Amino acid sequence: MAEAEESPGEHETATPRPLFAGLSDISISQDIPVEGEITIPMKARARELDNSTLNESVRHTIMRDLKAVGKKFMHVLYPRKSNALLRDWDLWGPLILCVTLALMLQKGSVDGEKDGGPQFAEVFVVVWFGAVTITLNSKLLGGNISFFQSLCVLGYCVLPLTVAMLICRLVLLAGQGPINFMIRLFVVVVMFAWSVIASTAFLADSQPPNRKALAVYPVFLFYFVISWMILTFTP
Amino acid sequence: MATTATPASGVRNGAGPEWGGFEENIQGGGSAVIDMENMDDTSGSSFEDMGELHQRLREEEVDADAAAAEEEDGEFLGMKGFKGQLSRQVADQMWQAGKRQASRAFSLYANIDILRPYFDVEPAQVRSRLLESMIPIKMVSFPQKVAGELYGPLMLVFTLVAILLHGMKTSDTIIREGTLMGTAIGTCFGYWLGVSSFIYFLAYLCNAQITMLQMLALLGYGLFGHCIVLFITYNIHLHSLFYLFWLLVGGLSTLRMVAVLVSRTVGPTQRLLLCGTLAALHMLFLLYLHFAYHKVVEGILDTLEGPNIPPMQRVPRDIPAVLPAVRLPVTVVNATAKAIAVALQSH
Fold first, then answer.
1. Rounded average pLDDT over B154-164
2. What's this model's pTM, rounded to 2 decimal places?
3. H or E stretch including B176?
4. Which pLDDT value is given to residue B8?
5. What are A's interface residues with B at a Cβ cutoff of 8 A?
6. What is the ipTM of this complex?
7. Among B152, B144, B145, B146, which Cα is nearest to B124's?
């Protein structure tokens, strides 16, 4: 309520019309004097925001966000025990990765029938609901990580698998065959291991020490399902 | 002023026990804002209180306007400004109250702490429970202990989903009107939740001492056997191997569940009903999971009709005598067989 006590003074100086000065003398209903904690917190905060980011150019804003996303990508590709992903979490990166993956995994419906290949909505739902389930699980196991931090980490760690998808599509351009399959299998397995290790590096610290395995197993399953979707993709 | 005085004092005196805090605050002096904090303490669901409060605020505002209208000498702008201020104040209060309502409702319903005790396990406990789910204990005179946790069963259901996806893909299953992912998740979760509820209902009828949580945990751990069998047989396609595993591993996990239920039920008829149903459903589910997503469909057609009809029939042929026999595998296996049978029937 400290804010409340300060703001009446602020409010009255902001509208310095002498006509209002006599307001406190008017008692409309005798019990409620019309002075005191009239707080309009929105206005004060909006004025602050006005000065910081609303006046900058759109390009500047986008570049700042993209740089943050790119920095986190680097953290995922070279996983060290840092909490950069946890401290300033954002969901732009996971969204970009998920949309890219879902677009690449979409089969063009040539026959006009759904032949069981993952469609855009399926991949999207699997990624986001899988991440939500893992987050809930790790919270229920006693982890002290927040909901969105966990979503952020799991989403960013899909990056190696997206790279695997790109490589698989390129490899598939050369035609299909057993050698082709072996290459793709190798790439996907390596990227899957990378994803699991990267997400463990970030998430494991938030769990009680004796339950790390319980929290890591669903992460393993989650990336396994995504890897399966990537490996079995045929254009 | 008498007319305005009475409602105002009515506001003050009409503040009964539930508005006790309100009253004190007014007399405390410094606050124009009607303090809603105390309201939360005294009333449970504040929807009716909110309506009441809003009503009182409106009354007060009407009083305020009425009183301000009387002070018409000189301070014209002052009055208008005051009305604007009061409406802003009211709007702000309404927003605050609404926000508080929403956050309270959210913390009540989205509180996952209700489930927290069911996830309180150690890895060693999960491992030992997984192994115990394959070992039937023959102690029927005393209720056997069932661990009431949800982590193990949930992870086993997800593992079964993953194994099923792998099996569907290696058998080139074609699902029309659906997706592989959706089918796998629907099948596994549907079995776990649906059969648990059904057996719990039967247990209620047969007067068995088992709770819903225990039933969920029991059936969940019983899926461990299914996971093992399917993981092996989706990769090694031998029918005899599958039947052996079905009887051995599936049988062991079913026996374990049956033993637990028998120890918790009194009376031979009830025991028979409950355990028979569970055993039948559990074993048939494993059978279904194997055969529904199995690629050796041609072998089944051959064994049923004899070798005179090749599985992929493209040449138009008059085969009326075979049609009834062709219908039989359609009911047994999946869409792949349907496609073949349709192709046969259309020629």
1. 94
2. 0.65
3. none
4. 43
5. 17, 19-20, 22-23, 26, 28-40, 113-116, 118-119, 122, 126, 136-137, 139-142, 210-211, 213-214, 217-218, 221, 224-225, 228, 232
6. 0.72
7. B152
